[in-house]
């Protein structure tokens, strides 16, 4: 057994070498001992802190709180706590503290022994988790506020079932919270057959990209009627797959669109009738004057006839667009020689547009089945557009190429081109890449919509490539029969 001097030496070595801080203060609170661990944790050497109070180390701790804690220790209880400390370099640290009362050999209290452990890392991790929890709770509250406000329909669903829906959504579809709670509200069942493809595409987008862009569909209401809806969704869980979506009832907008479509259809019919008579009379007059050889009035009448034709063409386009919209455009089914059709179209157009050479190349035999007049309408539209939108050029190139299954017709111009941002819209009804107030090019934005639909009905594809200021290429591909 070591003697008492060795024992003291032994204790001093332990105190100096442990990683925890060992700090002793006298009863007045002045630091009287400071080990290496304390130096390591707080960054002060013993000579910098001896005689000072622990307030230097814990500036955020109020002296009243400190006094209260020390009173407990004086009463004989060890104090355990976690204090926020400050290192010499100003950084914040967290110390796990145990304070014990020290006694003299006679048993009188002579000071406090504080043992401290640096728990900064653990504390920071805990604080981070708390912050994240608070942020999550905050965002959950925000989302809940939106759901409960019932301004828009909100639905949470999985692959099949509606798991949760707010009242706004249930009102749209005529179901109740009980229906949702029963777990049998299957959203595929309430999706009308014609909207299955877009709905499947949306689910695929959700699975692959996590969100699906808003799209229009309809749901069956509980009473069997349909309600048109704009819907957009975001996946919030992959496994099991769950998503949250907003839904807006767009009945009013759809009604308005329908009224507008009906108006366009009725108005174009009403405009067409008197115009057809006007055209008939003009041509009759031309024939009569020709027969009587009264040639001096003929140029004026022919100009009149031309203008009437222009208007007939516009009204026919309006009628076609209306019919397409209502799904009522009929198509003949006949064998169409595309080479011949392109030649005829060009021969017909060339005299009217002497400013441009309509150059046809690559005339291979190409027979498709479809409506000759409608396909002719597509080529006429693409070629007249190419001429109209290339006022400073003098050529439009038309190329026909075939593969065993497909005929490809390319109409290329060297004109104004189409700005990138407009490209994906130009096949939409009434869409014009140029401001309607821009008087340079007249038009109503229907030709490409009609052409696109006709080509689609023939099982083909119409695409565009264009560069602003350089020109455009429209490519039609049609299946060969
Ligand atoms: P529009 O009656 O306006 O010509 P279209 O439906 O035929 O209607 O074309 C839609 C829009 O696409 C046009 O307004 C025009 O901005 C653009 N466009 C069509 N063809 C061309 C082309 N060859 N070159 C440049 N822009 C074109």
UniProtKB/TrEMBL annotation:
Subcellular location: Membrane
Gene3D superfamilies: 1.10.287.130, Histidine kinase-like ATPase, C-terminal domain, PAS domain
Domain PAC: residue ranges: 79-131
Membrane topology of this protein: Multi-pass membrane protein
UniProt GO BP: osmosensory signaling via phosphorelay pathway
Pfam families found in the cross-reference section: HATPase_c (PF02518), HisKA (PF00512), PAS_4 (PF08448), PAS_9 (PF13426)
SUPFAM superfamilies for this protein: ATPase domain of HSP90 chaperone/DNA topoisomerase II/histidine kinase (SSF55874), Homodimeric domain of signal transducing histidine kinase (SSF47384), PYP-like sensor domain (PAS domain) (SSF55785)
Transmembrane segments: none
EC number, as in UniProt: 2.7.13.3
Residue ranges constituting the Histidine kinase domain according to the UniProt record: 266-481
NCBIfam families per UniProt: sensory_box
Name by which UniProt lists this protein: histidine kinase
Organism: Reticulibacter mediterranei
């Amino acid at each position: 057994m070591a003697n008492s001097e060795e024992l003291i030496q032994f204790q001093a070595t332990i105190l100096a070498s442990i990683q925890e801080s060992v700090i002793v203060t006298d009863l007045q609170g002045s630091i009287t001992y400071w080990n290496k661990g304390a130096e390591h944790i707080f960054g002060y050497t013993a000579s910098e802190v001896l005689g000072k109070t622990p307030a230097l180390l814990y500036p955020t701790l109020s002296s009243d709180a400190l006094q209260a804690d020390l009173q407990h220790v004086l009463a004989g209880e060890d104090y355990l706590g976690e204090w926020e400390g400050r290192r010499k370099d100003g950084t914040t640290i967290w110390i796990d503290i145990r304070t014990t009362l020290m006694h003299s050999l006679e048993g009188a209290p002579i000071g406090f022994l504080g043992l401290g452990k640096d728990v900064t890392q653990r504390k920071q991790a805990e604080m981070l988790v708390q912050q994240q929890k608070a942020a999550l709770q905050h965002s959950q509250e925000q989302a809940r506020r939106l759901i409960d406000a019932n301004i828009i329909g909100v639905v949470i669903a999985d692959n099949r079932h509606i798991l949760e829906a707010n009242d706004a959504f249930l009102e749209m579809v005529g179901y109740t919270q009980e229906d949702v709670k029963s777990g049998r509200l299957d959203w595929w069942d309430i999706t009308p057959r014609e909207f299955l493809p877009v709905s499947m595409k949306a689910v695929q987008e959700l699975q692959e990209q996590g969100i699906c862009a808003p799209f229009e569909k309809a749901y069956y209401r509980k009473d069997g009627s349909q309600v048109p809806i704009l819907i957009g969704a975001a996946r919030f869980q992959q496994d099991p797959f769950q998503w949250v979506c907003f839904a807006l009832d767009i009945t009013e907008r759809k009604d308005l669109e329908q009224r507008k479509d009906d108006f366009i259809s009725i108005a174009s019919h009403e405009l067409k009738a008197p115009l057809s008579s006007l055209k008939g009379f003009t041509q009759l007059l031309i024939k009569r004057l020709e027969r009587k050889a009264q040639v001096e009035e003929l140029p004026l009448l022919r100009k009149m006839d031309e203008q009437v034709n222009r208007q007939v063409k516009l009204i026919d386009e309006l009628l076609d667009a209306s019919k397409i919209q209502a799904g009522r455009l009929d198509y003949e089914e006949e064998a169409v020689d595309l080479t011949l059709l392109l030649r005829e179209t060009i021969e017909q157009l060339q005299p009217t547009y002497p400013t441009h050479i309509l150059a046809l190349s690559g005339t291979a035999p190409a027979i498709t089945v479809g409506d000759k007049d409608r396909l002719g309408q597509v080529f006429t539209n693409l070629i007249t557009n190419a001429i109209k939108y290339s006022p400073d050029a003098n050529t439009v190139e038309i190329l026909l190429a075939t593969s065993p299954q497909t005929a490809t017709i390319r109409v290329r111009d060297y004109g104004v081109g189409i700005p990138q941002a407009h490209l994906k819209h130009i096949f939409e009804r009434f869409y014009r890449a140029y401001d309607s107030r821009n008087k340079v090019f007249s038009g109503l934005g229907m030709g490409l919509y009609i052409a696109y639909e006709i080509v689609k009905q023939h099982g083909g594809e119409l695409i565009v490539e264009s560069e602003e200021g350089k020109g455009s290429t429209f490519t039609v591909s049609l299946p060969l029969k």
